[in-house]
Design brief:
The structure holds two protein chains of two kinds. By secondary structure, chain A is mostly helical. Chain A has helices at 3-16, 25-38, 42-50, 58-67; one strand at 18-20. Chain B is an alpha+beta fold. Chain B has one domain (2-201). Chain B contains four helices and 13 strands. Chain B has helices spanning 2-12, 27-43, 166-176, 186-201, and strands spanning 22-23, 52-56, 59-63, 65-66, 69-70, 73-76, 79-93, 96-109, 118-125, 137-141, 144-147, 150-153, 159-160. The longest helix of chain B has 17 residues, at 27-43. Chain B is globular, with a radius of gyration of 18 Å. The two termini of chain B are 27 Å apart. In chain B, 38% of the residues are buried. The chains are: A mainly alpha, B alpha+beta. Strand 1 (18-20) of chain A pairs parallel with strand 2 (52-56) of chain B, so a sheet runs across the interface.
């Protein structure tokens, strides 16, 4: 997902209140948020979260809750 | 409204609510019911800000967002609430689902952004998605404790806690922090909502 597509999805979410993501979109959105919040790819952030090796600061906390969307 | 009639009935016979799962034709419908319920609870207790929801098949996340970012929302007396939950809808039979909370994060602070000062956080992550050794249900406090000749950073420690519901966080804001409730029947609403949570998740609190 491009940064532009992620930004459009964020706008839609705020406008409509609820958005159902197509397969692959959740990973794309997580990647965009990970790059913004912790300056790394979604894949790298997810690996760190699942290994219990991320910090407990607020950015990581938010990403960790969101990561539960991904299987 | 379904929720209004449910609350009226629950107010009168709180202890006799039948234990049943959520009914719906799809996880999306179930998550919609849950989001509407939580928004209604928030709007009648501490904030009119709406929660937004992302849905992927049988999972959904809920949070407050503004300007493309997660935010904490103003709840009164200078306090702000951050709320984030990820849930799973488990199909138990045709048109019947149970909700499972996979993760939550609640924070009470003094501004909308994550850079703003905060003083308490409650968090939970299921072992299903994190291989961490710290207590799954925990809290952080923006404080340090000096005792027994040791120094503890309560901000960094994962202090073990029980399951903390959003209803208990709202109760803490209203009763302990003196945030003015948006309706006189806030306590009945919180109790009724906890009862629904028990029904929808089959979890005892």
């Amino acid at each position: 997902m491009t940064a532009q597509a992620a930004a459009q999805l964020e706008k839609r979410l705020e406008r409509e209140g609820s958005v159902s993501l197509a397969p692959g979109q959740a990973e794309g959105l997580f990647d965009a948020r990970a790059r913004k919040l912790v300056k790394m790819s979604g894949k790298a952030a997810l690996k760190r979260i699942r290994a219990g090796k991320c910090g407990s600061n607020l950015a990581w906390t938010e990403l960790t809750v969101l990561s539960a969307l991904l299987k | 409204m379904w929720l209004e009639s449910r609350l009226d009935r629950t107010d009168r016979s709180f202890c006799s609510v039948e234990i049943t799962p959520l009914h719906g034709t799809s996880p999306e419908e179930i998550f919609g019911t849950f989001r509407n319920h939580l928004n209604d609870l928030l709007h009648h207790t501490i904030t009119e800000a709406p929660l937004v929801q992302l849905i992927t098949a049988d999972r959904a996340s809920l949070e407050f967002r503004q300007g493309g970012d997660s935010v904490a929302v103003k709840v009164g007396r200078g306090y702000y609430l951050f709320l984030s939950q990820t849930l799973e809808a488990k199909k138990i039979k045709a048109k019947e689902y149970r909700l499972r909370t996979l993760a939550y994060a609640y924070r009470i602070g003094f501004g909308p952004r994550r850079e703003d000062e905060w003083f308490v956080r409650w968090e939970y992550n299921s072992r299903e998605h994190i291989d961490a050794l710290h207590p799954r249900h925990h809290c952080h406090l923006a404080a340090a404790a000096h005792c027994g000749g040791k120094e503890f950073s309560l901000e960094k420690l994962h202090i073990a806690s029980g399951w903390v519901t959003i209803e208990e966080v709202i109760r803490f804001l209203i009763y302990e922090l003196k945030v003015r409730p948006k309706s006189a029947d806030w306590d009945a609403r919180l109790q009724a909502s906890e009862e629904l949570f028990r029904k929808w998740t089959a979890r005892s609190l």
